[in-house]
Design brief:
Layout (H helix, E strand, L loop, with lengths): L1 H11 E3 L25 E3 L1 H7 L3 E7 L6 E5 L22 E3 L11 E5 L18 H6 L2 E6 L2 E14 L13 H13 L15 E7 L5 E9 L1
Parallel strand pairs: 4-5, 6-9
Antiparallel strand pairs: 1-2, 3-4, 3-7, 5-6, 7-8, 8-10, 9-10
Length: 224
């Protein structure tokens, strides 16, 4: 599995060196001044779509740059549990969206599942956010898609019960989303910058196993 994903990264990922010539801009329409960031990588989605049309995007975690993988979405939450991006049987599986989420990370709460592999691959290093130092290194996660690149800020990291309200799929914009996000922020086991949520926010929930069948480790971030 590691060999396959290394090959995919070599094929599809280009690291971006910040410069005047190459720049990805993210503009906040409500900000007093436009704010821009450089996307740390560039993805060749055309090549990825040839390999697997279920590709929805690519995730990159700034504090743990080895978490840099394609994200797919299947017809259910079982297909990619133990199938790689190239659809080969493999315990490592693929990072995948909950099948009930809308495409392109446009759900109010998009859940991304991944295995906690002992060799550190997939979401094997996600639990490093148990340490405050990891968050302090960088609180940002990138989701890159064929339509655009989106930057998210982590607002909560904690252990959740498998049947907890963490896994609530919000139907649409509104007060339910704000109430949910504020509640999730209160669950955090580390200190995250306090966030004021809006009814139209987009949240990602990264979920991996803990070694205890009754719990999962979760990192949540909001699109900025």
């Amino acid at each position: 599995g590691t060999d396959e994903y290394s090959k995919i990264q070599d094929m599809a990922v280009t690291e971006i060196q910040p410069s005047a010539e190459v720049r990805k801009e993210v503009v906040l329409p409500d900000a007093e001044e436009d704010q821009t960031w450089d996307a740390p990588i560039e993805i060749d989605f055309a090549s990825l779509q040839v390999v697997n049309k279920d590709i929805e995007g690519w995730i990159y975690v700034e504090a743990i740059p080895t978490i840099s993988y394609p994200v797919v979405q299947g017809e259910d939450n079982d297909y990619y549990l133990h199938r790689t991006f190239e659809k080969q049987d493999n315990f490592a599986g693929t990072l995948f969206l909950d099948y009930k989420n809308t495409e392109q990370f446009e759900s109010p709460n998009t859940i991304i599942y991944g295995h906690n592999m002992k060799n550190g691959s997939m979401f094997g290093r996600l639990t490093e956010f148990r340490e405050q130092e990891t968050y302090d290194t960088s609180p940002y996660i990138w989701i890159l898609t064929p339509e655009g690149d989106f930057k998210y800020q982590i607002f909560s990291a904690y252990v959740a019960e498998v049947d907890s309200d963490t896994y609530t799929l919000i139907k649409g914009p509104g007060k339910e989303l704000v109430d949910y996000a504020e509640r999730m922020q209160g669950y955090s086991s580390i200190i995250c910058e306090r966030t004021a949520f809006e009814s139209t926010d987009k949240i990602i929930t990264l979920s991996t196993c803990t070694g205890d069948d009754s719990t999962r480790y979760v990192v949540q971030a909001v699109r900025i």
